[in-house]
Amino acid sequence: MTAKKFNKVVLAYSGGLDTSAIIPWLKENYDCEVVAFAADVGQGDEELEGLKEKALATGASECHIVDLKEEFVRDYIYPTVKTGAVYEGQYLLGTSMARPVIAKAQVEIARLVGADALCHGCTGKGNDQVRFEGAFAALAPDLTVIAPWREWDLSSREDLLDYLAERKIKTTASAAKIYSRDANAWHISHEGGELEDPWCEPTKQVWTLTVDPEDAPNTPERITLSYDKGELVAVNGEQLSPYNALVKLNDLAAAHGVGRIDIVENRLVGMKSRGCYETPGGTVLMAGYKAIEALIHDKRTLQYREQLALEFSHLVYDGRWFTPLCNVMLASANEFASKVTGDVVIKLYKGQATVVQRRSPNSLYSEDFATFSKDEVYDQKHAEGFIRLYSLSSRIQALKNQK
After folding, report:
1. Does residue 111 fall inside a structural domain?
2. Is 128 a catalytic residue?
3. Which of 130, 219, 288, 296 gives 20 to 30 Å between its CA and that of 65?
4. Mean pLDDT within 217-231
């Protein structure tokens, strides 16, 4: 073990088994003061209750709990929605979007307390180590980063429990943890347990946020979402802040079992992992956004936005938020979203969120042109010349082949 010493280390602290063990481990191995930092990104009061007392009892000198809920939704979720980003066609990036806002606040706390190092509890197998350390590199390259899971010889929950027991540090954790979960205002993720076998169907114990679609109400519910320049500003006519609007959508959609996915994804570090995600409000918000977007963008513009969505999904997933490329992409997304204003009605029913009505003052949809009834604006004979020119290259190739 390195003999290097630090004055203060700010630890991203959750109160779970891993970070509870990290506090005394840092003090023993780096001869440092440990400042615990916890981010409130909407994971719920249960996870935050008693957290400060627990951190101090475990050996931290201070514990800072920072409310990031509105910032998270306003400055990370909404901008990502404007890009249309969905990782590998299904994952709405709940954990990925939360990491940069947490890392940024951790750096701010480090500056506040005069720390010379940062620490996280991410394992060497996951994506989060890259997301945190990529943010640290961009925001605080002068601070050393400590990643205990890449350094210590503890390798299991049993090892961690024994480590704490030897030091007479109390913990409510047990060796029987089944699932690894991560929750915030946007979603909750579930990994581990039976989910490590992709042939095993998730049991009811996996899901914690949404009603089982089979048990959802037999009567659909319709909700109205209002957007202004790509941002959700009202639900059912009620003006709400970004965070409160998302909370409202979560409550409404979860009751109907909306937002469940079960996927195998490609982690940044190279392996595949299986996870179940619940994103009720986010599923509805994204569906509403894309419904208005479909009204106001022409074919080529929407095609280009779809390319942006693909690229941005990988950028966020891979932990590159604080980069010049991200700034360029978000500037582009803001331009795309500048006319995404209007209302959408979404039907919630048995796990589905279906857009049934949409309108926008910037809509390019014209019933006069699109109607199957008689019209006075479109001459169908014009299509013949368009088709001949559109397919001209194919015609020339075919004539060449015939010769």
Report:
1. yes
2. yes
3. 130
4. 98
